[in-house]
Amino acid sequence: MITTYFQRLDPRKATLCLFAGLLATWAFAGSLGLITGALSLGPAAESRLPWHSPILAGVLLALVVGLPMTVVALTATHNDPAAAQTTLAAAYLLIGWVLAQLLILREFSWLQPVCVVSAVTVAALGAPPLGHHTTLRR
C-alpha cells in the first residue's frame, strides 16, 4: 500500500519525504536519549548546557529539529503550496541547531557537518525546480 502511495509522488518529493523523516527520527531518538540519560554528552559539555540540563537539550532538540523535519516529511507528500518555505525553514533550524551546539558546547563532532550537509540536501530537495514560479496565497 505504501509503495502505491509513493509511486504517485514524483521521485524528488518521495526522496524529500524519506530523508526528512529519517532526520526527524534521528532527532527524536537523540532527544529521547538525552531526556532518559541513555545518551551522555560528558560532564564538560553538560556543564555548559543552560541550567546544566540534558533534559532541556533533549526537549529543544525535539522541538527545533524533530518537529520541523516531521512537518517537512508530511508536507512533501501533499501538494502544499507552503512546502518549499517549510522545508527551507526546517533546514535553517537544523543549521542553527548545529551552530548553537558549536557556540554553547564548544565541542566538535563528526555529526555536525553531516547534519549541515543533510540540511542543505533537504533545502535542495524541497526547493521548486529552476524556472518554476510559485505564487503564495495570502
From TrEMBL:
Keyword tags: Membrane, Transmembrane, Transmembrane helix
Membrane-crossing residue ranges in chain numbering: 53-74, 86-104, 110-130
Superkingdom in the source lineage: Bacteria
Protein name: Integral membrane protein
UniProt source species: Nocardia rhizosphaerihabitans
